[in-house]
Every structure is written in C-alpha cells, then in structure tokens.
Amino acid sequence: MSGDPADHPTVKVRPRAGEICIENRYGSPVDPSRAAGRLDLDELTTAIEDFNSIFIRLPSVRRLTFSTLSVLHTLARRGPLRLTDLTATEPLGQPALTSLVARLERDGLVSRRRDPNDGRAVLLSLTEKGRQIVDARHADRVANLARLVDRLDDQERDTLAAAVGVLTRLTEIATSDGAAGPAPRRRPEPKRP
User: Fold this and answer.
1) Range of the structural domain that residue 60 is part of
2) Banded model confidence at residue 93, pLDDT cuts 50, 70, 90
3) Nearest-angstrom CA–CA distance, 20 and 15
4) Which of 8, 100, 151, 188 has a CA that sits 20 to 30 A from residue 160's CA?
5) Buried b (16+ CB within 10 A) or exposed e, 82-92
6) 82 and 17 inside one domain
7) Is the residue at 98 inside a domain?
8) Angstrom distances, CA of residue 15 to CA of 7, 18, 31, 123
9) In the chain, % of residues over pLDDT 70
10) Does the global pTM surpass 0.70?
11) Contact 110, 98 (CB under 8 A)
C-alpha cells in the first residue's frame, strides 16, 4: 500500500455482482487482503476532529480568540520565530497576523527583537506574561481532561496512554514534512554573506 491517501481504505461495503467490496475514499476497489488490519484513516480523522472541537472548548482561566491562542501556543512550542514563520502555521493572512501580533505586543504577551543572525529580520517570542497564559491554559486543560479520563475504564486508559506516543510521532513526522509549519529552531541559522 502506497502513501497515497486514496489507497488507504474506507470500508464501504457495496454489493457488486453479488460480492462485497472494500473501496478507497475515491470509490476504487481495494484488495481486502491489503485492507485487513489497516487503520481506518477516515474514522481516525473524524475522531481527532471531534475530539479537537471539544478539547479547544474546555473551560480555561482566560477567554482568548483561537487565533491568539494559536500564535501564543506556537511561540511557546517553537521558540522565537519570524512573522513569516508564523504565517506558515497560522490560518491568517500576513496583514491580519501582523495586526494580531501588534495587539499581542501592546498587551505585553509577545516581544520583538532583532534576529542576531539577520539584522534585517525580527524575531517574535513570548513574554513572561504570555508564557503564564499558555501555562495556565495548559494546566486548566490537564485538569479538565483528567476529569474526562477518569470516566474511562482501565483498558481504555491503557489504549489512550499507548496512543500518546503515536500521536507525538505523527506530529514529528508532520513537522519534518513541513505539513505543520516550520520545525522548531534547534540551533541558530548561519549568517548570510
């Protein structure tokens, strides 16, 4: 089975000439032996989307817009970034993102400083106040998620615990492929001549 999303089976059982077939998301037949034991990516995607829609709404200390939280979270996870790096991860155009960052700076949540590797560029980073908001939201979500996880049985908790590593690995893969925006900066970029 290739990495093409069309090859990942969606179990659509339809009678054709008295047979049952499994089709991919585009309606092409898939050999059942290739589909056996495979992950249903449509089901996984739906589960993640459903969970995300609930998870992002878990109560928190302070109500902020999704865009604001996304920028703060990205800066917290990936360190100082250029505005152009943020445009790769945020669902906003550069003018809207520039305006949002200016507001976050005015509110004392984000600071700007010259990029030591490129004097023409500016790096954005969280201030202590911005970090406190991110940390408080995280703590609130942990507490609220704990309340939900407490309602799972032991086997469900074990399954969830095993899934954490897999989800982390998927995030790493997406980041390395550029699908999740720029990777965290681990070391300074060399100066350009």
Assistant:
1) 56-151
2) confident
3) 5
4) 8
5) bbebbbebbeb
6) no
7) yes
8) 20, 6, 15, 59
9) 68
10) no
11) no
Structure tokens at 122: 């500016």
26, 99, 165 from 94: Cα distances, Å: 35, 9, 34
Count CB-CB contacts under 10 A for residue 78: 18
Q: Which residue has the higher pLDDT, 83 or 34?
A: 83
- Pair of tokens at residue 32: 């059942």
Query: Could you write out the DSSP letters of every residue in the chain?
Result: --S-GGGSEEEEEEEETTEEEEEETTS-EE-HHHHTT---HHHHHHHHHHHHHHHTTS--SS---HHHHHHHHHHHHH-SB-HHHHHHHSSS-HHHHHHHHHHHHHTTSEEEEEETTEEEEEEEEE-HHHHHHHHHHHHHHHHHHHHHHTTS-HHHHHHHHHHHHHHHHHHHHHHHTTBTBSPPP-SPPPPP-
Query: How many domains in the chain?
Result: 2
Q: In this structure, what token pair is assigned to residue 18?
A: 């008295």
